[in-house]
């Protein structure tokens, strides 16, 4: 049975569970419909609703959620890629691709979620760092993981670098893709760059932005570049598929700092949903893709809320936009992250003993913005099926929602430009007698600002 058909049947049996949550649970259960139903009943306490018989089935693919786009380099500022509309029998819709060439373009279209900074490092430092990274490729390797029972391998090489000790503990003590991640100590050059990134974020960015409700910084409201994932793209065919960075270690509303070195490549972002949809049909239309050219020594900052609202990828090309005189067609990308100890050290464990994966619902308007925990061991094809809604006020309960806890609430955040969600919230307030625009029904967990 096709995955789309399984989701459709599950949605008919459990209409109160959002489809994006059903998809996550199906992934946790390795594509097994019966295991997913058991998980829903055991974890969420929901009995199945009797399904109506003889309903017609529509067949479509959800592979686009997991596969990289192969449309190639755009030749103009705005281009369109033809994709089928999700409703059967409807006309074909177009995905708009907008090319962003400079920081002003990025600010106009993607603020406050992303910003571009050209020539971030001193020229000599950027070139020395590139040469240094070229000597470190033996420390990088391809990631392997399972998706719906199939073994997958990344199309680029990756390595993790960090200080020997982070917050007094071994920096290798964290799990990714169901495996404990090894690390390499920061080299002098990488550490120097991490400090420059820290200074920029703490002095030039944070003081000028309003903090989001779950924003992750230390007690002094500082961000730290304590860990760095180095990605190596050997040539233009090396790519990174559509994804959002996991929130499990960095927590919700955190920064990801990305510094590009070597060949120029195309970095793409697209919204997880249509934030200005007025009808159900518009909600299903493909979202705009924003394509950013990242030359040598450019820094892209993904700001708090970006991982919640957007997916990103590195597009595969026949050749890079521009080769680098030092590395040729090869590109390195350093992504600096901060693992807040008060959050990371307190993450829940699933039944198989591993730290859990934190995600956020985004497909269905009703559930959009709600955070939840799933089993990390899914990526090793050994899921235990543990599922929890998240409550970021429940530190004593490892950030897990407890319906028996006085004041407990599923943590929720939605964007200030999420018009369908805002419209739904305003309707709920009006039905309860509150004036339109009142925030009396909104707590810190769901305020949209």
What would you say this structure looks like, in words?
It is a single chain. This protein is an alpha+beta fold. 21% of the residues lie in helices and 24% in strands. The protein has 10 helices and 21 strands. The chain has helices spanning 3-13, 19-28, 33-44, 103-110, 123-134, 188-205, 280-283, 306-309, 341-344, 419-431, and strands at 78-83, 93-100, 114-117, 141-147, 150-162, 165-166, 169-170, 175-176, 179-180, 184-185, 227-233, 240-243, 256-262, 265-271, 289-294, 298-302, 310-314, 331-337, 357-360, 371-374, 387-389. The strands form 5 sheets. Strands 3, 4, 5, 10, 11, 13, 16 and 18 form an 8-stranded mixed beta sheet that branches. Helix 1 packs across helix 2 and helix 2 packs across helix 3 (33-44). The longest helix is centred in the middle third of the chain and has 18 residues, at 188-205. The relative contact order is 0.14. Residues 50-92 and 436-449 have low confidence and may be disordered.
**What is the straight-line distance between the termini?**
42 Å
Count the E strands: 21
User: What structural category arises from helix and sheet content?
Assistant: alpha+beta
> Strand content of the residues, in percent?
15-25%
Radius of gyration: 22 Å
Low-confidence stretches: 50-92, 436-449
Helical content band: 10-25%
Count of DSSP H/I helices: 10
Morphology call: globular
Largest beta sheet, briefly?
8 strands, mixed
Mean pLDDT: 79
């Amino acid at each position: 049975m096709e995955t789309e058909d399984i989701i459709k049947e599950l949605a008919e049996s459990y209409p109160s569970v959002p489809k994006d949550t059903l998809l996550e649970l199906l992934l946790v259960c390795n594509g097994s419909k019966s295991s997913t139903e058991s998980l829903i009943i055991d974890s969420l306490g929901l009995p199945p609703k009797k399904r109506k018989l003889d309903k017609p089935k529509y067949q479509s693919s959800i592979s686009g959620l997991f596969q990289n786009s192969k449309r190639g380099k755009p030749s103009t500022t705005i281009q369109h890629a033809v994709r089928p509309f999700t409703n059967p029998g409807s006309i074909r819709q177009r995905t708009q691709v907008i090319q962003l060439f400079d920081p002003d373009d990025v600010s106009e279209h993607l603020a406050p979620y992303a910003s571009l900074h050209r020539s971030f490092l001193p020229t000599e430092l950027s070139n020395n760092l590139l040469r240094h990274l070229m000597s470190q490729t033996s420390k990088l390797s391809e990631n392997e993981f399972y998706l719906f029972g199939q073994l997958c391998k990344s199309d680029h090489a990756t390595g993790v670098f960090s200080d020997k000790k982070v917050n007094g503990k071994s920096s290798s003590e964290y799990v990714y893709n169901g495996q404990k991640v090894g690390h390499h100590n920061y080299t002098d050059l990488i550490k120097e760059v991490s400090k420059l990134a820290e200074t920029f974020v703490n002095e030039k960015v944070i003081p000028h932005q309003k903090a989001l409700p779950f924003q992750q910084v230390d007690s002094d409201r500082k961000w730290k570049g304590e860990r760095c994932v180095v990605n190596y793209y050997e040539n233009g065919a090396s790519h990174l598929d559509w994804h959002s960075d996991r929130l499990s270690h960095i927590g919700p509303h955190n920064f990801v700092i990305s510094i590009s070195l070597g060949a120029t490549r195309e970095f793409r972002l697209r919204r997880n949903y249509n934030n200005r949809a007025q009808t159900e049909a518009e909600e299903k239309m493909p979202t705009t893709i924003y394509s950013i050219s990242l030359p040598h020594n450019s820094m892209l900052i993904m700001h708090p809320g970006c991982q919640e609202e957007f997916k990103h990828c590195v597009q595969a090309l026949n050749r890079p936009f521009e080769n680098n005189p030092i590395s040729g067609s090869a590109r390195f990308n350093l992504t600096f992250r901060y693992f807040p100890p008060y959050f990371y050290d307190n993450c829940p464990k699933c039944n198989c003993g591993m730290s859990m994966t934190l995600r956020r619902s985004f497909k269905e308007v009703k559930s959009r913005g709600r955070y939840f925990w799933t089993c990390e061991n899914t990526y090793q094809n050994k899921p235990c099926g543990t599922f929890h809604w998240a409550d970021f006020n429940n530190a004593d309960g490892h950030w897990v929602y407890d319906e028996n806890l006085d004041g407990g609430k599923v943590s929720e955040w939605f964007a200030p430009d999420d018009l369908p969600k805002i419209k739904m919230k305003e309707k709920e307030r009006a039905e309860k007698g509150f004036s339109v625009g009142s925030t009396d029904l909104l707590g810190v967990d769901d305020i949209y600002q």
